[in-house]
Design a protein that fits this description.
By secondary structure, this protein is mostly helical. 75% of the residues lie in helices and 8% in strands. Helix 2 packs across helix 5 and helix 3 packs across helix 4. It is globular and about 50 Å long. The protein starts with a helix and ends with a helix.
């Protein structure tokens, strides 16, 4: 059976994603908690909306994770002085320590993988993956718009 390049790419993306799911499971983490910790470790300060947009996880999952992290003393919320409606999520010092301990092995696996591929391949992989993802979402959104138009007709 001949598998198209598109199918091979899809399978590789899904397989890689399952690797992260497996890491979450073997480290006692839910995907939403690991994604919140990961994003806040990298970006330091984000709104709930930014976390939803960056992770593509449901707002309810992000909200649940934020509440759990606040209750554990790992996350604090601060009001934006420029816009009182906006609240930022930031890891507390205890949260930063917790995130580092929890995510350390994941970061090591990612670093080993990147080193094995090398800088040039990593740049190419990142650029191509971003281009693929943006193009795919463009056509997916276009398809959805066309389907909605047909339903209204």
């Amino acid at each position: 059976m001949d598998i198209s390049d598109t199918a091979k790419l899809n399978l590789a993306i899904v397989h890689g994603s399952h690797g992260y799911d497996y890491w979450d499971q073997t480290h006692g983490m839910t995907s939403y908690l690991s994604m919140i910790l990961y994003e806040l470790t990298i970006r330091k300060k984000l709104t709930q909306k930014q976390l939803v947009d960056l992770t593509d996880l449901p707002k309810q999952s992000i909200n649940k994770g934020i509440k759990q992290l606040i209750e554990s003393g790992y996350l604090s919320m601060t009001v934006d002085p420029q816009d009182k409606r906006v609240r930022f999520c930031e890891l507390t010092p205890t949260g930063e320590k917790f995130a580092h301990e929890k995510l350390h092995s994941l970061f090591e696996i990612e670093d080993k993988t990147a080193k094995k591929l090398g800088k040039e391949k990593m740049k190419q992989l990142t650029a191509l993956n971003e281009e693929w993802s943006n193009t795919f979402w463009h056509f997916l959104t276009e398809e959805r718009s066309n389907e909605c138009r047909l339903l209204k007709s």
